[in-house]
Structure formats: structure tokens, C-alpha cells
Amino acid sequence: MPLAERLQSVLVAAAAAAGLGAGLAWPIGPAAGHVVLPALLVMLTAVFAQMDASRVRAVHRARPVVAASLALNFVLTPALAWALGAGLLGGSPDLRVGLLLLLVTPCTDWYLVFTAMARGHTGIAAALLPLNLVLQLLLLPVYVLLLGGQAAMVDGATLAESVLLVLVVPLAAASLLRWAAARYQGAARRDRAVVAPASRLVLPLLYVAVFAMFAWQARTVVAHGAELLVLLAPLALFFVIAPLAAVAASRLLRLPADQRVTLTMTATARNSPIALALAVAAFPDRPLIAVALVVGPLVELPVLALLSQLVRAPAPRQGSPVGTGRSPG
């Protein structure tokens, strides 16, 4: 795992602190506000440019893992997000919506890294990515409108437009970029010219967006600092319950060790960049929602690093495909 990825939670925190300091020291808030959404849109395009949709065909060979993943990510987790928000954040509607947006979006990028670290089946993990992306694209408006309740206070048309902007547009741009590169340069050169540079852009763009977000909303963060600390309790509960539920499902289904790791990681890792982009687009007048979403990775990434050691599969024997990028079989 590259050093930049190992230090991601530290660098996100550093970007937030730097943005907060800059926003309090200088009047750069309005200018920084114009940077957040463009940076997130370019970042998501770079994330999607790395995804190979053809991998989704491999999921039919791992039906138990796929079924368990769908049940955990799109049934149990939304119910848990609603319960945690209603039970612990009832007095703060913006934090409730921020928590909901974070928890109902399963990860489509960095969980592959932690799956590999824990010797999980990265072939199945990669095959799940397009499926998770399409389902969260379709279900996000439903979750926000049904589970957000009065706290969401956004009409369906506005939410649909925001999903179109932050998910469909970057996905279409990335797909067009991949197709054009493969069409005129071949798959190998496409990977060198598009996929590799895109992978190097994601983290810097995330740090830029986080810096700009905190510079833009520095005074909001200072005014609501105590409220943001309240988020730690529901986040901690989620990051305990989600992996335990995945391990229980793995035992029930008698999954092999590498598939157990994959299920645990996909059920635990969340897609904070997409949730943050949606919050900025759909709730521009409620900045605390977006600010709350930056707290998520500060908790999540250390949890995933620890989890990758706790659920690590045994080292594969000579010739075993476990933990590789090969298709499941």
C-alpha cells in the first residue's frame, strides 16, 4: 500500500485543519466555495475512469457473497443509518442527513486497497464495484426522501438533479474517456494514458476539496464544533456493528476466508467522496451537512486499517488464487 494511501486519514485531517485556519485568517471563504464542487466532480470522474464495468459479469460466480453484500449494504445499513440518526442525532437534522448520506453509500474505490491488505478476494471485490455504484445511484434519492424525513427537506426534483450532476455526469465522462482511449490507442495504452493518471489524481483532488470546504465554512465549523463531536458516537457504533454483521453472515453462509474478508470490507467501507459531492449539490444552503461528511473518513480510514489486520485471511498456499485480482471461481 503506497505511503500516500496509508497516510490518507492524516492528510485529510491536515487538509481540513489547514482550510479551517486559512478560512479564519483570511477572507477566502467565497472563493473557496467555488472550488469545492468542481474539485469533487473531477475527482469522481477520475475514480470512475479506473472502473472496468465488464467485471460485473464475474459476480454470478460468487452469488452468496453478492447476495449478502446487497442485503448488508442496501437493506441493513440504511435501516441502521436511520436508527442511529433518529436515536442519537434527533436534535440535529443536518447531522442526521449527513450521517445518512455517508452510511447509505457503499465504497467504490479505496476498500479494494484494504481488501488486498487483508488478503481478501479482490476479484470478487472489483466485480462488486460497478454493482454497488449503479445501485447507490438509483437508491440514493429514495433513501434520502424516505429515511431523511423532515430532516432532509429537499424536493425530489432537486435531489434527482444533484444525483445527475455528481454521479451520472462524471460516470458518463469517465466512460467516454475510457472508450475513446481504448478505441484509438488500445486497452494497454488506455490503462497507461487514462487509468494510471486518474489513480494519481484522486487523493490530491480530495485534499483540495476538503481544504476548500473547511476554508469556505470555517466559521460554521467553529460555531458547531461541539455538534460535530456528537457524530463520533453513531459513527463508532456503525463501524462496530457493520463488520460484526458481515462476519456473522459469512459464518452463516460458510464462506471461505478470502470471501469473508471481501464481504466484511464492502459492508464496512463507505463512499464519502460521492456523499460529499451530493451534499454540496443538493444542500448548498446547509453547509453543516457537507462538513459532517468530512468527519466520516477521519474515523473510517483508521477503522479499515485496523479491520484489515483483525479479519486478515491466512496466507494462500502455493498456486492459490486467494487474494489476487483473478475472477472468482
Automatic annotation (TrEMBL):
Family: Belongs to the arsenical resistance-3 (ACR3) (TC 2.A.59) family.
Location of this chain's protein in the cell: Cell membrane
The keyword Transmembrane helix appears for this protein: yes
Primary location: membrane
Single annotated GO MF: antimonite transmembrane transporter activity
Keyword Transport annotated: yes
GO cellular component annotations of the record: plasma membrane
InterPro entries in the record: Arsenical-R_Acr3 (IPR004706), BilAc:Na_symport/Acr3 (IPR002657), Na+/solute_symporter_sf (IPR038770)
Membrane topology classification: Multi-pass membrane protein
Bilayer-spanning residue ranges: 35-53, 65-89, 95-114, 126-147, 159-181, 193-216, 228-249
Protein's name in the database: ACR3 family arsenite efflux pump ArsB
Record key words, sorted: Cell membrane, Membrane, Transmembrane, Transmembrane helix, Transport
Pfam families: SBF
